[in-house]
Amino acid sequence: MSVPMTEQFDRLHSGTVFTGFSVAQHAFQGFEELVRLNLRVAKQALPGSEDAQRLADKTPLDLWIDQAGNVQPFAEKLLEYNRQTSDISARTYAAILEIFDAGFQQQQAKLREVVEGFARNAPAGSEAAVSVMKSAVSFGSVGIDTIRKSAAQAIAMAQQGQAAVRSAGQPG
Which pTM was predicted? Predict the structure, then answer.
């Protein structure tokens, strides 16, 4: 006994919903990591009351000299912050990409089953419709793979750029 086509498409849809929830969960976890990082950086940036008193006792020239001396440590902290945010983004992206890849592979296999089931049970003369469905599945697969590869290249380029900035900031 074959499974009705509508039930097969319902199964496909439920897999998509599960994938959506998994992606949302990983995106939210990445967002939480960024919030924790920003809170930690904000706490480090806030001067304590003893710092405020120490600053109040300085002349404008002393403050300017202190600020000039703080440029290098600030730049290093900024580069470290950038590295950490990039790491969080890359981990989140990798987790989401893994979910999409696994879900896509499952959905493609199920969709092929549906198309093959349709082809086996199709009435005579519907070869063109079956051919169109198979082509659509194939083109969809190629399109998604192209998008995935482009996104991976963009992430790799961003990471290379970040590595170049880090190495340029190192004393040579």
Answer: 0.57
